[in-house]
Amino acid sequence: MSSPDYAQELRIALLAVQRATLLTKTVFHNNAKGTLDKADASPVTIGDFGAQALIISALQHNFPNDEIVAEEEAKDLRENERVRATVWELVKNTKLSDAAGEKELGGAIQSPEAMLDIIDKGDSKGGRSGRIWAIDPIDGTKGFLRGGQYAVCLALMVDGDVKVGVLGCPNLPVNDSEPLTEDIGADATDAEGKGVLFSAILGQGAASRPLQKGALADPSKITMKPITNISDATFCESVEAGHSSQGDAAAIAKKLGITKNSVRMDSQAKYGSIARGAGDLYLRLPTSKSYVEKIWDHAAGDLIVREAGGQVTDAENKRLDFSQGRRLEVNKGVVAAPKDVHPHVIEAVMSVLGSK
Ligand SMILES: Nc1ncnc2c1ncn2[C@@H]1O[C@H](COP(=O)(O)O)[C@@H](OP(=O)(O)O)[C@H]1O
Ligand SMILES: [Mg+2]
Ligand SMILES: [Mg+2]
Ligand SMILES: [Mg+2]
């Protein structure tokens, strides 16, 4: 099933992300998040597993022939009955309050066993041909555990090109024009006035809408903020020093004349925040370790920023190439900025990284 304008894909993606955030919000408020350590020593929680199950179930119901690349796998759940039971309770009990929307997503998953198989349907190798969805059920798991920002991320790629992107950010302000504060990444809440869904379709611009419980709210167009003086820019970076070289980012900011401290927050909430003009730049500079970025950490954010009038490249000024499989094999780092100032930012990036 497909539509040339991707309207149906966007609608299902929005509903699926909305439903998954209801689950993650429940977990966010629980003291026990059911954390396990993955083989690479990074954390995964019952929220990650549950959100992935709900999103894949919705995609399979609507687009049964599409492939899916998702971050998590069910192996640890198959081996841990207690955690599996907790995830199943959450998945079984999370429904959109809008019955029509819930029906569009195909309703409930039938059994714990079906849930495990659904989670493992996200094992596509990715690549350059066909329709492939990329899912990050919780991006910023460390932020999620810390009580910071996190995002539920979903993108559709067709022949290696991102066509649709959705980010659900339960702990960001609803209001697009609320400027970023330095503490946005700490002690985040999903209280009144929080929660936003960002979205974009290639060639059709980017939008935001309040993340709410019932039917989808109406969208508002978002655009990046024009920068007249780069030294006034607000730049965003990861909270995690191990994910991005903060020393290099500071040197680049200095070179651009930026005196404000960076805004540090977890997850693709950074892409959404600059796309809506709450911040200006996103810098993710390669660390000394040879880490290769994953497609689900960037696909939706890359499209949303570009459709809001930005440019997104790696630190060598190459566009992010999502056609290489599950990882961004040919890219290093991320530099996102309004289109007209991006060359200027890249010049500073290259000068700082080149002189090392
Ligand atoms: N050494 C590393 N360098 C860069 N990114 C890393 C990394 N280790 C993990 N990550 C990725 O960074 C993501 C979080 O992004 P950010 O640092 O912007 O908050 C993680 O997503 P998950 O939380 O979904 O696992 C993970 O995929
Ligand atoms: Mg991630
Ligand atoms: Mg994740
Ligand atoms: Mg992870």
TrEMBL record:
Extract one GO BP annotation from the record.
phosphatidylinositol phosphate biosynthetic process
Query: In this entry, which stretches build a coiled coil?
Result: none
Q: Name one GO molecular function term.
A: metal ion binding
- Tell me its cofactors: Mg(2+)
Q: Which residues bind Mg(2+)?
A: E71, D136, I138, D139, D297
Q: Which domain of life is it from?
A: Eukaryota
Sorted alphabetically, the keyword list is:
Hydrolase, Magnesium, Metal-binding
EC number(s) reported in the record: 3.1.3.7
Task: From the UniProt record, list the reaction(s) this protein catalyses.
Answer: 3'-phosphoadenylyl sulfate + H2O = adenosine 5'-phosphosulfate + phosphate; adenosine 2',5'-bisphosphate + H2O = AMP + phosphate; adenosine 3',5'-bisphosphate + H2O = AMP + phosphate
Q: Which family does it belong to?
A: Belongs to the inositol monophosphatase superfamily.
What role is this protein assigned? Converts adenosine 3'-phosphate 5'-phosphosulfate (PAPS) to adenosine 5'-phosphosulfate (APS) and 3'(2')-phosphoadenosine 5'-phosphate (PAP) to AMP.
Q: What is this protein called?
A: 3'(2'),5'-bisphosphate nucleotidase
**Naturally occurring in which organism (per UniProt):** Neohortaea acidophila
